[in-house]
């Protein structure tokens, strides 16, 4: 675990280390980090960044290598709905509805050799919301 994790519950320290690894991966890949852990009410966006002209919302999922579930399995329908709401609030708060955007996932696995981060591009399709209406006008 990273320095500074003393006194922090292990699962929170692992999650923070995973988000740090994800941010490092994104920077090395040419992304510009705009915000981390953006919150509105009970909703959160892990990382908001830019890749060229595209606004990218990055969900970070961290798991131990010996765990039963893969990080990618965590994007269940309820999480997708929360992400959709959080992204809508973020776009409204910043008046960014005209920006091209997408959602990426960075899965981080903590194994015997440390943390390994992998980016999965454009993991969620929000072209329609539950009512069938267009989610965003691009």
TrEMBL record:
InterPro entries given in the database record: Restrct_endonuc-II-like, tRNA_endonuc-like_dom_sf, UPF0102_YraN-like
GO molecular function: nucleic acid binding
UniProt superkingdom: Bacteria
SUPFAM superfamilies cross-referenced by the UniProt entry: Restriction endonuclease-like
Family matches, as HAMAP family: UPF0102
Entry similarity comment: Belongs to the UPF0102 family.
Protein name as catalogued: UPF0102 protein Desaf_0502
